[in-house]
Amino acid sequence: MVQPEPGRTSLARAAALVAGARRGVAFTGAGISQESGIQTYRGQGGLWNTTSPRTSSIDFFLADPAAYWEVARERGTTLLAARPNAAHQALVELERRGNLAAVVTQNVDGLHLIAGSAAVIELHGNGREVVCLDCGNREPRSQVQGRLPEELPPRCPRCGGIHLKPAAVFFGEAMPVEATSRAFDLAGECDLMLVVGSSLAVYPAAQVPLVAHDAGAPLIILNAEPTPFDDLATVVLRGRAGELLPELTRAAAAAGGGS
Ligand code: NAD
Ligand code: ZN
Hints:
Shape: elongated
CATH superfamily of the largest domain: TPP-binding domain
Oligomer: single chain
Largest sheet: 6 strands, parallel
Bound molecules: nicotinamide-adenine-dinucleotide, zinc ion
Number of helices: 9
Strand order of the largest sheet: 3-2-1-7-8-9
CATH topology of the largest domain: Rossmann fold
CATH class of the largest domain: Alpha Beta
Number of domains: 2
Structural class: alpha/beta
Number of strands: 9
Strand content: 15-25%
Helix content: 25-40%
C-alpha cells in the first residue's frame, strides 16, 4: 500500500505555512459559504443534484427572464439572508495578521466583503446587486426580490426593460477582465495558496491555484471532499471550513507568524 507523505494532512504543517506567509492568497468556493446556509453547486447536497445548471446560463435568462426569476427567487432570499460564518471571519483575521494579501473568490454571495476582508477579488461578480442589461441601471437585489410577488419578470425602474440580471457571471458569460487578471497576477506572486471549499472543477477560475503552484507557492487545500488537485497540495485538510479554518488560524497565531 502507498503510504501518504508524512505531514500531508497535518494541521500543524499547514499552520507553519500560513504563519510564514507574507503574501498568501486564499482561493474560495461555494463550500466556504455552505455553513452560512448557501447551497453549493457540486458535491453532497449540491444544487446541480436537483436543478439543471442551465437555469444559471445566460441563454436561459435571455430566453425567458420570468422563468429565470421564478427559479432564482428562492435562491435570492437565501443569499440575502446569509451571514458570514467562522471561516469567512478566519480569513479576515489572517489578512489582519499580515499572512494574506487577498481573497480571490468564485462566490457571488458577497460574504467576504460583509465579513470585513479588505482585499477581495470576486471572479464571478456579486449576486446582491442587479443590473439592467438594457440601460445599465444597477439596484440592490433586495429591491428586485421585493417586487417579485407583483411583478414577474421584474421591470427596470429606469427604462422599463425586462432584462434585470443579478450582477453575477452566468454560464456562457465572460469573466470580468480586471478581476481575472488581478487574480492571476496575485497567484503568480503569492507565497502561499490556501484553497477553501472549492471543487476546483470550474474553469478558468480553477486555474488560479494551478498558477500559484506552477510559480512555486505551497498549496493548502481545505475541502469537505477530494479535489482533482489534491496530489499537488503540500497539505490537504479534509473537513468543514467553519471548523478547520478557525483552528488553522489559531494554530498559525500560536506558531508566531504575522503581527
Ligand atoms: P462547488 O459547488 O463546485 O464545490 C464546493 C465544494 O465545497 C465541494 O467540493 C464540497 O465538497 C465542498 N464543501 C461543501 N461544504 C463544505 C464545508 N462546509 N466546508 C468545506 N468544504 C465544503 O463550488 P465551487 O468550487 O465554488 O464552484 C464554482 C462555482 O460555484 C462558481 O461558478 C461559483 O460562482 C458558484 N457558486 C457560488 C455560490 C456562492 O456564492 N456561495 C454558491 C453556489 C455556487
Ligand atoms: Zn433599464
